[in-house]
Specification:
This is Transcriptional regulator. The protein folds into two domains: about 1-80, ACT domain (Alpha-Beta Plaits, 2-Layer Sandwich), CATH 3.30.70.260; about 90-175, Alpha-Beta Plaits. Helix 1 (about 15-25) runs antiparallel to helix 2 (about 55-70) and helix 3 (about 105-115) runs antiparallel to helix 4 (about 150-165). About 30% of the residues lie in helices and about 40% in strands. The two termini are about 35 Å apart. By secondary structure, the protein is of the alpha+beta class. The protein has helices at about 15-25, 55-70, 105-115, 150-165, and strands at about 1-10, 30-40, 40-50, 70-80, 90-100, 120-130, 135-145, 170-175.
Length: about 180
Amino acid sequence: MTTYVLTAIGDDRPGLVSALSSVVDDHGGSWVDSSLALLAGKFAGIVLVDVAESRAERFVQELATLAEQVGLRVEATAAAAPSAAPPGSGPSLRLHLLGQDRTGTIREVTSALATVHATIDELRTWTREAPEGGGRLFEAEAQLRLAEGGDADVLRDALETIAAELMVDVEIDDPTES
């Protein structure tokens, strides 16, 4: 079995996921996991699929035809075998950030995360109008994972320091305590 990570992007229209899933199914593949989104009129997705080795080459070739057929550009990357202890195999935390929209917020936050060897399993960001004409707010939610042996308090301290510098509110929750 060959495992691929597929990245797909195209102008949004009905049938894109159907076309992609048909190629997977036509080659006896299994749609294992995915994250799909619509952003600024573009459909984008990342999909994990398993395909029999004997069908892998033809599968990848047929993915390339989706660009012409339905306007969906798909790139297939063979997934590496998981290591015994992947980076970020320690405790999991949830982050919520809210503050005035400004440049550099994500750079500052992700830099702090990298400093304490935390990885981002999932990140969602958006902006919205502040109540009563208070400008634009930036909001982020993330699922974070610390390195094995990582200290959640060190991560909290790093993010609280950044929050004070950026004048944003940061909440960090341990999902196991919910």
